[in-house]
Amino acid sequence: MATVELKPSRSNRIYRPSSEPFDGKIVISSPSSISHYGIRLSINGSVNMQVRGGSAGVIESLYGVVKPITIVNKSVEIKSSGKIAPGRMEIPFSVALRQCGEESMERFYETFHGSNISIQYLVTVDILRGYLHKSLSTTMEFIIQSDKAELLNRTVSPEIVIFYITQDTQRHPLLPELRSGGFRVTGKMSTQCCLSDPISGELTVEASAVPIRSIDIHLLRVESILLGEKIVTETSLIQSTQIADGDVCRNMTLPIYVILPRLLTCPTALAGPFSIEFKVTVVINFESKLSKVQSKFDPTTPRLWLAMESLPLELVRTK
Amino acid sequence: MLQVARLLMDTSVLEFYPTIFVLVTEVMDMLGDLVWERIKQKAEFTEDETRVCTLSENFGASDICFDAKETCNNWFCKVGSVRELLPRIYLELAILPCWRFLHDRPEECLQRVVMMTRGLADPLASSYCRLYMVHCARKLPACDTGYLITCINDIKVLLMRTISTTESPYAYLTDNKKLLVSLMEPTIEYLIKCILNDASQRQLGKILVELGIGKTQLELSGSSPCISIILHHLLKELPTEVVVSNSMEIFDVIRYTNDHSFDQCLNYRLLGFKLSESRSQMEIVNAVVDKVIQVVTEYDRLEDYLTVLDAYMDTILQNQMDDYLNSMLEGIVDRACKKKIVEDELASLQSIMVKLISYFRELGDLFSLNHFLEILDVMYGGSRNVVNMHILSMAMRNGYVCDQTIVKLLFEVSRSLHDGMDLANMKDDESQLPSRLIIRFIQLVDYGEEMEQHLNFLVECRGIFGNLSDLKETLVHSSNALVTKALKGGKNRLSFVKSCVAFSEVTVPSISAHIRQLNLYLETAEVALLGGLVSHADGLIASAMSCLQSLQLEDVGSQIHMEIDGILSSIRKLCSLLVVVPGCIPDQGATNILKGVLSIIHSLSWMTPRMKTRIHCSLVLLSAALSQNKLPYHLHHSEVLGNDMLFFGDTSYASELISFSEPILRYLVDAIDQEPLQTNRGSMALEACNCIASSFKINDDLLMVCYKLIDTAKSCLSVNDKFLQSTIKFLDKRLPPPSPIQVN
Q: What positions belong to coiled-coil segments (chain A) (predicted)?
């Protein structure tokens, strides 16, 4: 039985659309010789959107899939018809993802897999063998990161937000002892962050009458899809990082240091039909009997024993 | 891995935490090593395992290929995605050295982890986490101690909070603060050790300032600058010179640092020890000691008082601060008399007393210290014994003890030592030390010309220390020595001598071992003879002989063989003594005592042939000596006449001696034949032969005996034996003019 494999030149399969070609090898191994009508390589990139749960209503969810946006769709013949000798054979290939002067329909968004939006790039090899034989083919995903040329123009602004969290900044009901005792937590954090760097900042518990149980930094993803005239937004928690365990000392500066999960983040994207944004929520979890009873709860939903502060976070690609 | 690290989040059972810590960090280290090796391999080898490069010890991030960096980065991302703080820190620490693959300055990452650790509110978890941090940071190539100082200062804040709050979210903290602190102690100790390890003098100053120690008094007042336990370990690790040169500042820090984590006294104490370790300027020492004494005089509890002062004792003594010494001793008495002293206090008191004792050269100075004896009196038990022993051994250092008051005091000391001795446990060497000391003391007591007083003293000793057998032996020796001393004095002290001999006579029977009794009887008999007390001497010799007799009854066992030489020499001693004992009891015959000895010898079944030979030889020599017209030696006493005077020219006396010695010859020959060992037998035969040849006029019968003995010797020894040859030569000389008798 003949097999066909795709071996991209990079083990991490990360490519940039303009500056670099997508290259690699096609490896065919077969016990017998194969005649074919041509070997084709096709590249397909698209934004797939799906409305599911979130702020979408029942009717919208019935629509289900929104029409996908195609970013790239091209097919190249690597080899014209001929014969492949038995044994192992390697065919190198190189395809420019975006050719100069070529009118591209869409931007090459970075690869992203979210809950409602997914941006995916696939490469497929087909060995066409006429009607009598089943054609051999294989598909592989590769990852697109923004062009260096594009990135050079941008630098991360050292924009730092100073925040403070007290009983008065909370818009949801709090435990009476929290209201009366009061608390004050201050901090600062950069709101624009390079994807390869951690989110950094610091936080200080200045006062709290009620002991603190934990302080967490939640990283949230906001996916929005334009659906007709409505925007359907889905916010999901992608990572929690605890920075204080227990009732920490007052007036001691704690670092905020959150490494961004590679597979769950991408540069903030604001396109017409969809947008991918991120935000950070600082959640202070106070000791209370109630919280012990309800041990499992969504950490982002406001509760009586939680105090929180949300900060926008723009993720950018640099280098 | 994560599960393992999570184990450390649980601090509910405090005591288990260190154990879990060790187990978990072992696993963590293993993980760290594996990751390090894996990435290093990626950097050094290609995918198909060919070596590309070899990383040097101090490689930089630029030497690492992209792939290896990717892998390394993935690890940090993986660790970074852990939600819980504590496992995340531990995991990052485990792979901390791997930062070297990515950055040229991995210390910066360490600095961040130090800050992250502040997020751990639990004091125990947080301090152990820092311990692991130090452990991992040591794997980084170059690392200054700055991060450690941050750690210590953070722990300080944590501890201050833990100690000061009465209410805490951690229920266990309120109950177990002491336990908590004691569990945290090793981590603090280790951190401080690492900070001060090979720190230079200049760095030390900086470190002190950064830890909040080097402040002026003004800055200190009001705030508590440090935590006692941290201060304690800091003091412990700081080089002595640094402590001493900053001692005033340190004193102030100690004064303002008084919390429950560690006893303030012990910090004062440590300062004291450090002061005494080095010779420093008088002014500083004076000032510090002055301040410390001021502080301790306010202490109410004896224990605290003693704990601190004990450390300053050496300094006070060495610098001759007599005022402080007096006020200190007074302070001890004041506090000690209020209530009974407890065990811990005794230990400190003991240490203080021993220091005092070893400082003074003269007992008199020691005893004349104010309150010294009072303090000694309030002590009891083992500590008192130790102090007593020190006093006694100090007294021994200076030789004879002549001062009457000191003798009296030492006697009291010995008495209390004796009362404190555990008589049931006297077997091992250590427990015999006190009794040896007392014996030594008695030996060294010297009353000079006041011999009656000395005797009285001995009598008193016998009364008090009656339980110690060895001691009674000493008493007898001492009293005998007194007799000779009295006799040498030349004055007529017959009654004193009598009472001494009587004292010995009474004392000896209470000594348990017969062999010792025997020797003591002989010694006393000799002394009695010297004093001209013939009847006493006779009585004593009789007692000695009955002792000898009873040797058989009780002591025959393995140990008797060990002492066999001792017994032999005692019997020989008896024989030599008998030379000068006048055998003047007419109706019993002159050789009565000799016969007694002989019969006892025969009745002792355990005698070895060798012993018998030697004793018989002695008896032969004795009778030969007695038969001379002039005895070889005499008593130096005008009233006691020797046998040579008593029986001069008496033929019955001579024949009695001859008839006494005849059977002995027979026994002698028999005894030699019984000896199983050939070489022994040979030399014994020669010994006997020599003895016979030198004791008697040789006639034919005797010559037969001698030749027989020579033959025996010849059959047992080699012809070249020197002893054999000289014996034959000697025998030839002793022979009457050549006789025709041939011996084959």
A: none
Q: Is the separation of the CB atoms in B706 and B741 below 8 Å?
A: no
Q: What is the 3-state secondary structure (H, E, C) of A213-275?
A: EEEEEEEEEEEEEEECCEEEEEEEEEEEEEEEECCCCCCCEEEEEECCCHHHCCCCEECCCEE
Interacting residues of A37 by C-beta distance below 8 A, sequence separation 6+: A81, A128, A129, A130
For A294, phi and psi rounded to 5 degrees?
A: -95, 80
Yes or no, beta carbons of A245 and B119 under 8 Å apart: yes
What CA–CA distances, in Å, run from A313 to A176, A194, B82, B287?
A: 32, 10, 21, 63
Closest CA to B511 of B466, B556, B457, B455: B466
Q: Rounded CA gap, B125 and B5, in Å?
A: 12
How far apart, in whole angstroms, are the C-alpha atoms of residue A293 and residue A74?
57
Tell me which residue of B281, B192, B282 sits closest to B239, measured CA to CA. Answer: B192
Distance CA(B661)–CA(B665), nearest Å, equals 7
C-alpha dist (Å) from residue B77 to A198, B73, B90, B273, B385: 10, 6, 14, 52, 68
Q: Give the chain B residue whose CA is nearest to the CA of A244.
A: B119
Residues in contact with B222: Cβ distance below 8 Å, sequence separation at least 6, in sequence order: none
- A166 contacts A145 by C-beta, under 8 angstroms: no
3-state secondary structure of A113: strand
**Structurally, what CATH architecture does the domain formed by A160-316 represent?**
Sandwich (2.60)
Measure B154 CA to nearest chain A CA, in Å: 9
- One-letter identity of residue B147: Y
ipTM score of complex: 0.86
CATH number 2.60.40.640 is the correct assignment for the domain at A3-147: yes
Mean pLDDT over residues B465-494, rounded? Answer: 80
Q: Among candidates B391, B322, B316, which has minimal Cα distance to B350?
A: B391
Tell me whether the CATH fold assigned to A3-147 matches the one assigned to A160-316: yes
CA–CA min distance B98, chain A (Å): 16
Contact B483, B530 (CB under 8 A): yes
**A252-307: pLDDT as tens digits:** 899 999 999 888 888 888 888 889 999 999 999 998 887 777 666 677 778 888 89
Gyration radius from chain B CA atoms:
43
Nearest residue of A to residue B168, measured between CA atoms: A211
Average pLDDT over all residues of chain A: 84
pLDDT-derived band of residue B743, with 50, 70 and 90 as boundaries? Answer: very low
Mapped onto helix, strand or coil, the DSSP state of residue A80 is strand
Residues in contact with B166: Cβ distance below 8 Å, sequence separation at least 6, in sequence order = B174
Q: State the DSSP code for A110.
A: P
Residues B199, B234: Cα–Cα separation, whole Å: 13
Beta partners for A3? A29
Q: What is the mean pLDDT of residues B34-48?
A: 86
* Spatial separation of the C-alpha atoms in residues B127 and B136, rounded to whole Å: 14
Q: pTM for this one?
A: 0.70
CA dist B69 and B573 (Å) reads 97
Q: Are the C-beta atoms of residues B152 and A279 closer than 8 Å to each other?
A: no
Q: pLDDT digits over B650-671, tens only? A: 777 777 777 777 788 888 878 8
Cβ contact B119–A254 (<8 Å): yes
The CA distance from B598 to B304, in Å, is 73
Residues 6+ apart with CB under 8 A from B170: A246, B11, B122
B290 touches chain A (CB under 8 A): no
Domain ranges (residues) in chain A: 3-147, 160-316
Contacts of residue B524, Cβ cutoff 8 Å, sequence gap at least 6: B476, B480, B501, B504, B505, B508, B540
Using CA atoms, how far apart are residues B382 and B389, in angstroms rounded to an integer? Answer: 10
